[in-house]
Write a structure and sequence with these properties.
5 copies of one chain form a homopentamer. Chain A is of the alpha/beta class. Chain A contains 14 helices and 10 strands.
Chain lengths: 308, 308, 308, 308, 308
């Protein structure tokens, strides 16, 4: 809490309609860890055990089967926060109390069922308070025909969370019967998904780095007419940031599938160049041996620091 | 309550975010019966009357039509706990108060209806308190398109049960339109189902002993790349135990269909060798004549004791 | 839970209108510790820090300032249960979960204020569940003009506690503007106070050993007319036990002020001879050095065992 | 949140029955500011505007009429936390969000009315959450005949606050018709008042430094018999700390009336020597010119640091 | 509402912890009428029918018996708001909807009963919403032994009102058994009463113009030591304004008993010179013939405008 800075205060000023409790918890995350006070964030998310299954998630680095591992990784790497579903947070919240801000992911989805994308509620706002979390997290799938269920659940949860002083981090992943595979990471769709999250009241938005594809017919016309540049990743990131209320909502980007260190760092450099507020880095962190992961996360934080 | 041991205290320490009431009830089960204090558990479950019908369940051993029979069997055999739906527990809870910890199974399914797998709520947390239970039980069917209904019911019940100091035992059975028959007991799917239960907040997880099949395409790649051994049952059990938070959640295994005594004992030996925390043994117990059942359960307990 | 016996089942049968949850928790206390299964109880109560102040309570044996001390003493001495106010129970409930049944004393009084005797509510039934207690405890002061406040609070708490499966232990201490000092431990008044507790729904009653005084004018006539013997302590205990529903409610007796070992044991011998169900022994236990206390409590238990 | 240490973790371990949310907020205070991580605390409390009136409180240092002043003072001086009634906290909570942990004092008393001491509820637990506080604060007056009202309000507030992950700081001031003036700061009464707060469930207790007087007749006998030393302030502090669960509850001491710098520092040296966990320093801080106050608070913190 | 100005925005900035709904309603009053946008307020309050009886209130100007009269007076005179109890507001709220901000006085006292001062709740927050009010009003009597009742009612009402976006105006009148008559308008007591209202969360405070008396012994010492000037009314007003959070809470002054026009204007000039935010002018307005009242209120507003 000691590193509050002009930049953090500026970011908080964008959320002026919220109560001081919400701002305080946003500040807890913005002021914690290596990037504390810079206005940038690197978050460790570990929901893959639920979303992809244990072996796919943790076999590459077997100590990661243990929930304590991720708390300690987030602490040792100096992350701003650690996000996970109920089970993983409960397993360590007591032992690691006060050592790293946590985000309780309130809905999750497995890959066993065949159904239109729609995560199940797997935690509550009261759970987040009980576990000492700094925020709740929630996934929406714009493009799913179950959209309304998710948007309406999110709306109610944000309202409840705010009343207790908790901000909300929204994972916005375009997916579902309304979108072909190539649309899911298209720049127009990604920016649209980010905007939807902001309009729903998200305090922090998380999307995937978009690709150089414009998917929607109507969007194509606009992108052409106004010559919105989308060729480079920094250009696309800039458009996503702008789409988040002209830069007045914190938007961070996922690291995606595990890849080589150079590839990760190069992508982060481009994210930072485009004005990203940070990264949420899961598999590329916890699937590496711990020392390597800490080195990588440190390098990523340095890139964001330099980009300040 | 007298047999608390180092091992039991170690197990309880994994649940540090829970209140002392939850720990106390976990301890009630872990400290009761023949295996009290060993950290191992053998539970008698009798939900087959509901799940399979009375004749299929009780005709092989007619005294088992009477609910008193099962209380007495669990007591005489020295089981850690006895689990059943509301009706069976209510029939004996008064008479046998204080003699064996009980688990109220809060949802159950019959085999008369044709529908996507989704059990009906048949009891409440308040019922469990009123009946003096040490835990609630709940079944989820990962793979069912009714997944969200079940996960969300479970989430709410766990939250309520915790508030009153009750832990939760989750039966996690992959089943439904998302899975072909051969997937239901595949090692990847079983480990995934166990992980889901843990992430949802289960204190004790119950799955079936997995078979040497890897079902999901993405999982196959991982099992091959990281050479996860699945050939023997102990190897597969080890993987399931690891998938339950690196061994920090209690996971026990069902005995499955009735079979010969030697087959049962051989399977238990392999479960124990793989690091299972115990067995939940229904049909193989109550469908045998009582003396035989007590002998079998005693032999099973001895195997777990030796494996300590 | 393993020592349930004919005698325990007989005692439980007196509480047939209660649900199995209440019986189960009564059984938890009756079946625990050295006296488990005998139908007798020795309980360690430590509310003196609140009621008399810390120095008066703990200076005689300084380790007793630490709340852990009392949990460990109750465990090591093999007591049936340990009773204390919220603060003391919270301090150890997590660490000692599952090792000894606990009773949360829900009201307490200090000796700083000048007021008609009426304890303050200092805990809730929900607290008792959260802390894994086997019962709630409550003090009433028959003789106080604030009687109705206490009786009505107790009534509501018993109703609530029962609904969650918790029994109630009532400390019944005649005191207040309606009684002169010599009336407080008179045999007629003590028996009356015990009867009131039973009528209010107490499952276990705790009174002080009565003296050979009959205090109330109307009572004197009866005691004389029917020649109720009150000369010896066993005679008086017998009358109190009889006054507790003809012996069908568990009534136990306090040890009172600290005194010599021989005096304590002699008194317990008389209590046991009179048919007492047991003792609740605070200052005479925790104000002695630990080894001495364990020896004394062991000797007391042996007396009750022999009296069985 | 970055300075968590072995000592902080040890302190948190004393509160094992609480949920991780409560521990997290305790850690927020213990890890913040100059003393962060030492296990010692210096808190700035400013409730004197309500308790004594504005001129008496703020005329000595006129900038202190402005609520912003106190937030900034607590931040600049590196205090662990800032405590105040609703109005003062609301006036700055938004502007200073995330810069210093705050404690909302939920009851307050003015000196205009003539009545048995009993503060009015002036805020709620929900207010504390809305304002982003790390704890609630509450004053009890042991010795008042309105004791039960206050204890019962506190009991309910602690239960509610815990459920949302908030710890409770209790100001325990013996006062009222049960005590003569000389009893209010007597060593026996102060230790008793501290014990009561702990038994009621306080996480942090605040009392006045006791004087060398033993007030209660019964206590006198004990202090003499067991030769409890009370001549020096460190000896008396040691007794108070011991009376707070053998040192397992955080107890801090008020600075009292404004006095000279040397007198303040000398007293703090004695508090520290006696094992105090810290000071709560109001008038002696905010009634000095700001630079002088920061210097004084810094010197105080240094004393506690050295005493570690 | 169109006249929002730098000054209004500055005033709103002092209430940063409140939600935009509360700010919006504060702005409705600050931006309305002749003084709209100046940061000054003149409010018409008509609770005298309830507080003093109808004849004493309305006989001097008979049209004032009609509730419509007061709405129209407030509108025609260009007041910032009109405050009254439920009955008077209900009588005109429909007819005059949208023409002047209204304040529902939620508690009122008559002069028929003899009791320690404590107003009765005579309306609800829901009533205020239903009637389209811009704020709720509430009277407290510091000095009354019924203080806690009033403070606690106010606390709860403010919390409820805020949640619906309504600010609170507090009438703070020292009165009751704790104060002699001469204390009620003493400068120290008035400033204290204003401070209490602010600490309780009032957005706007209303007190009587204080007299040159210092009433409390302890306060006398402070006023002398720090040479707080109290001789002239502007000096005293300055002290009250400062006592309202260093000038960061809106404090307005009552006109008091009916008096001559020159006396009224002279007093207002002194209020304005001392930094008052405005006047709340009842009897001196509605007990005059309407034209005269409008002229007087206009002159008052001009004085505040010039003082800007």
């Amino acid at each position: 809490m000691t590193k509050s800075s002009e930049r953090v205060r500026q970011i908080l000023s964008w959320y002026g309609s919220d109560n001081p409790g919400v701002l305080n918890n946003l500040a807890r995350m913005l002021n914690h860890g290596t990037l504390g006070g810079t206005g940038k964030m690197v978050i460790l998310p570990v929901d893959q055990g639920f979303e992809h299954g244990p072996a796919r998630s943790f076999a590459p680095n077997a100590p990661a089967y243990d929930p304590d591992y991720h708390f300690q990784l987030a602490i040792d790497a100096g992350c701003n926060a650690y996000a996970a579903p109920l089970g993983f947070l409960e397993a360590g919240a007591f032992k690691f109390a006060g050592q790293v801000p946590t985000i309780l992911k309130l809905n999750n989805s497995d890959t066993l069922a065949k159904m239109e994308p729609c995560s199940a509620l797997t935690g509550s706002v009261k759970d987040a308070l009980r576990l000492g979390c700094a925020a709740i997290g929630f996934t929406i799938y714009p493009g799913s025909s179950a959209r309304n269920t998710m948007y309406e659940e999110l709306r109610a949860l944000i309202e409840e969370a705010k009343s207790y002083g908790l901000p909300t981090v929204v994972w916005s992943y375009p997916r579902g019967s309304g979108l072909a595979k190539e649309g899911e990471q298209a720049i127009d769709v990604t920016a649209y998904a980010a905007q939807i999250a902001c309009q729903l009241g998200a305090h922090v938005v998380k999307v995937k780095p978009p690709k150089d594809v414009v998917y929607q017919e109507e969007a194509k016309k606009t992108f052409e007419k106004y010559a919105i540049p989308t060729k480079t990743l920094p250009e696309r990131i800039k458009h996503v940031v702008q789409s988040c209320f002209g830069g007045k909502r914190v938007v961070i980007f996922s690291g995606g599938e595990a890849k080589g260190t150079d590839a990760v760092l190069e992508e982060v450099r481009e994210l930072a160049a485009g004005g990203a507020f940070g990264s949420i880095m899961g598999r590329n962190a916890f699937q590496r041996p711990k020392a390597e992961a800490i080195k990588l996360l440190g390098d990523i934080m340095q890139i964001y620091k330099n980009a300040g």
